[in-house]
Amino acid sequence: MTLTLPLNHKLASVHQVIPPELLDLKILLYKDNYGYSSAAENLIHLSNIPDENIVSFKSREMLIEAVAHAEGVSISPRKEVAHDRRLVSIPIVGCEIMHLEYLAYHKDRRDVPLITTYIEGWQSKDF
């Protein structure tokens, strides 16, 4: 997981952050019908981030815009915001939380170029 923030944020130039550094930040999170991601929930719990510091968004696009306009920071996978040059993602270290994603496809589709490229990208960590 990474901490996503605008380029002009005071932490934007550091190489990593630890959970205690999140306590005083306004955390903006995507929340769907099932709640927050399990990785975000675990990090919030482990970091003891107060509920009043958390703001929920139903739209990932609105969340990214809010972070870009310095309304707060977000806990998200780097690949989710890597395309946006207004933002920087910094690794959160000191906690054993992992964000997992899965790709399901029919075995007959394994040779489709899009799926092959996706799998090779994940294996080489280029994504």
Q: Could you name the ranges where pLDDT drops below 50 across 5 or more consecutive residues? A: none
Strand order of the largest sheet: 3-2-4-1-5
Integer tally of domains: 1
User: In which range does the helix fraction lie?
Assistant: 25-40%
Rg, Cα atoms, Å? 16 Å
Within the CATH hierarchy, at the fold level, what is the topology? D-Maltodextrin-Binding Protein, domain 2
Order of secondary-structure elements:
EEHEHEHEH
The second-level CATH architecture is 3-Layer(aba) Sandwich
Give the biggest sheet: 5 strands, mixed
Number of strands: 5
CATH superfamily: Periplasmic binding protein-like II
Strand content: 15-25%
Mean pLDDT: 85
Just give the CATH class. Answer: Alpha Beta
Number of helices: 4
* General form: globular
Q: Whole-Å distance between the termini?
A: 14 Å
User: Helix- and strand-based class?
Assistant: alpha/beta
